[in-house]
Amino acid sequence: MPLELKTLLAKAESAARLAGKEALAQMGSTQTSLKNKHELVTEADKRCQQIIVETLSKAFPQHGFVGEEGDGGRLFKQSPSGMEDLWWIIDPIDGTNNYAVGIPQFSVSIGALFEGKPVIGVVYDPSTRDLFTGTAAGDSQANGRRCQVRDQGLDRFANLALDSHFGPTLPPWLPEVIVRSRFRNVGSTALHLAYVAKGGYCGMIGSTPKLWDLAAGALLAENAGAIVTDWHNQPLWPLDVGAYEGTPLPCVMATPRVHRELMDLMSVGQA
Hints:
The protein has helices at 5-26, 43-59, 96-100, 174-180, 189-198, 211-223, 256-270; strands at 32-35, 39-42, 64-67, 76-78, 86-94, 107-114, 117-125, 130-135, 140-142, 145-146, 159-162, 182-184, 203-206, 227-229, 251-254. It is an alpha+beta fold.
């Protein structure tokens, strides 16, 4: 690594707190518009991303950036200017649909990928001030306390996060998953994954998440003992960030036991 992970993590934590403070200050007054005909965006999203990029680029001027909020509804991308293949992956407000209507369930998500693999993860909930952090060389923490998944089975007491976008045709295995779990959706994929890491959720199934939704939370969940794959039980990493242009990344991130059960259900449904 070109820099110590602790240095990277400390700056990412600072950037997340600054962006979270700005998001709360603008909540209820920021202007909302439609991008890509499918997603909402607020002026606060753009300003918070600017804060994060400025904070990190000042400290690490040679690093690359991928953010959700680019011009014309596209992603924001700035390639690394140095030799190191390190990219910061940013979702300034993960949960914009909640945020835009005044529901205080959203997060700031900042991850870093080195050679296509997550090495830094920060998920910050401004409303509760909960801070979830992790590095590739250490564990995951929630407010400074070590996180560990709770490896229960998939049953009626198991909190399982489900994506809110499954498309016009629901997967054939979805009803069985719903029946066998106490399914949840708080409106923020990054928070879903932080809760998996913390042991509150047994897993998360994502249908259309983007890289910025997953980069930080995936590291947190995996560090805490979760299995991270796509729907076909293949690894998500390494990922060619330079070539990434916003393609959805269907995924399953769950405790080992629940991941096995989900893979069994999904493989039958996909057969």
